[in-house]
Amino acid sequence: MSEQSAPVGSSENPSDAILTVPNIITFARLALIPVFLWLALGKNNIGAAWVVGFVLGSTDWIDGRVARRFNQVSKFGAAIDPFFDRLAVAAAAWVIIAKDLAPLWTVIVVLVRDGLLLAMLPLISARGIPRPAVTQVGKSGSFGVMWAFGLFIGAGAFNPPLEWVRVLAWIAFIPGIILSYMAAVDYARTVLVSLRAGRGSAQAG
Fold this sequence. Notes:
Blueprint: H1 21-42, H2 46-58, H3 62-69, H4 75-99, H5 104-126, H6 136-156, H7 163-204
């Protein structure tokens, strides 16, 4: 089915709408991030923060599923969903650093990857290049990292920390970070191809 014949709101033909059901779900999940930080850092209640974080992580698929099921895929939703993932991971990373719940390097490798991707945005915006679509590899990597960070926090909710939960965290983190960097390389390659194509068009013109 071509983009022209695909229904508005489908994955092939996203709409310009903002107030859609999946976007409202995303906004509701976004509102839980400050609650998570307040519980973990303000109230020093890691257990309650973990519950909120679990809701954030386990509902990651709902907005996308609703959007595709009911043809409510939007350009705004496609843009804000990866931003939400980055923000949720950054919030979890803040708690992990503040509470010393995992080695510092686990947070650094995640934030470096996300920082590099964010650094590309002004470049592609200035050149009029569309943002690369979120791939399944990237989504899976983000999901793995989010679950790993959540498990690190969950392990720290107990005194002494639950070592078997930390083991699960490492099982989620290692493939998650590998997939995340694979996706980052793919995004960078897509941007470079677009940049070269743009230079080639300019020279031909």
